[in-house]
Fold F-box domain-containing protein.
Amino acid sequence: MPDPSLSVPELWEQIIGFLPTSSKCADLKAVALVCRSFTSPAQRGVFHTVSFVTGNRWLNGRQHDELAESARRFADIIESSPHILSYVYHLRLHNADPGCYHALAAIPWSHLRQLYVQYPLPPEAKPDLTRLIGLPSLRELDIRTWGDHPIDILSSCSTSLETLTIAPEYQSKPPEAPPRSYPRPKILDLKMNGTKPFIGYITDLFDLTSLKTLEWWGLPCPDLDRFFLEYGQTVETLNLSDLRDAAWDNLSLSYFPSVTSICTLSKITRRHNKILDTLPLDNRVLRLSFYAERRTPNEEIQDIARDLEEVVLTRLMAVRSVEFTIRSDEFASEAMRSLFPTQRSLVDRHRELFPRLRERKLLSVCIEDLKLE
C-alpha cells in the first residue's frame, strides 16, 4: 500500500516508476504527453540516466564524432528547459569522442551524482573530463579504459566523491600526478583492478580510512597485503575475483575484522576453505557468496563442499546466508541443460552437496536475479 503521507505528485512518480524497464523510455515519453500532472514525474524518469554510447570508435579508419552531435542536442534541450538538469543523476559515456566531452563539460550540472566512463579516452578530452569529475555534486566515479589510464586527473576529483571504480585494461607506468589539495575525498566504496603504482596513487589522492566496501578484480599485486592491513579494518563488504589462482594463497581475512559480507567471483575450491579459516573466531560475517558449481558431482567436489560446510558452521558463527549464483545465459547452454535439465535440478544439486546448510536454512541458490531457494 502506498505511503499515505505522499503528496499527489510523489504518488504519481511512484506509480509511473512501475513501468516495464524494457520499454520504459518510450512509455515515459508517452506518459509525459498525457496531462500536465504527469509531465514532471515522467521527465524525471526519462532524464534520470543520460547515456552517450557508440559501439565502434572507428568508422572506415577514421574517428567518428556522432556522439558530439547528440551531446550538443542534449545541451540545447537543457538550455531551453533548464529545469530538466535537476533530474539528471547519472551520466554514462562509452566510446565518446572529444566533441561529446566538450559539449557535456560546458553544461552547468547541478545534481549529477554518478559519472561512468568506459573505453578509450581521447587525450583531447582529458581537460573536459577533469572538469566533470570535479563537479561538487558528484558522489560516484567509474572509469574503465583501454590503454593508459587517465589516473593523473584523479587529483581533480571533488571532495564529495564517495564511490570510486578504477579499472584499466592495460597500463604502463602512470604519469606523475599533481599533488592533491586537502582535504582529500573520503572514499567509502572502492572497486579496483590495478598494479602497485595504482595503489600508491589511490592512497595518496584519497582518504581510505573509512572504507565500507572493497572490490578487487584480477590477481594480487605487490604490496596488496600491506594495503589490506592498512585499510581493511573498516571494510564491511569484501568482493574478490578468482580466488582459484595460487597467487591468493597468502591472503588472510584477519585484515578485515569488520567484514560482514564476502563475495568471490569463482566456484568453490579448497583455497576458499583455507582462506575462510583465517577469519578470527569472533568474526561478524553474515553472508557468503560464490558462483554455483556446475560440474558433475565427483569425489573432489563433494570433499570441498563438505569442508566448506565445516568451516562455515564452526568458524562463521553469525552467518545467515551462503549463496550460490549462476548467470542465466550459462544455464541456457546445451552443456548446462544436459547436466541440469531444469532450474530446480540445479537447486537439488546444491541441496545434496550442502545438507547441513540446507537443514539450517542457510543455503540460497540464485540464477541471476531469480532466487530459487
Remarks:
- Confidence is low (pLDDT under 50) at residues 58-63.
- The chain is about 35% helix and 15% strand.
- The radius of gyration is 24 Å.
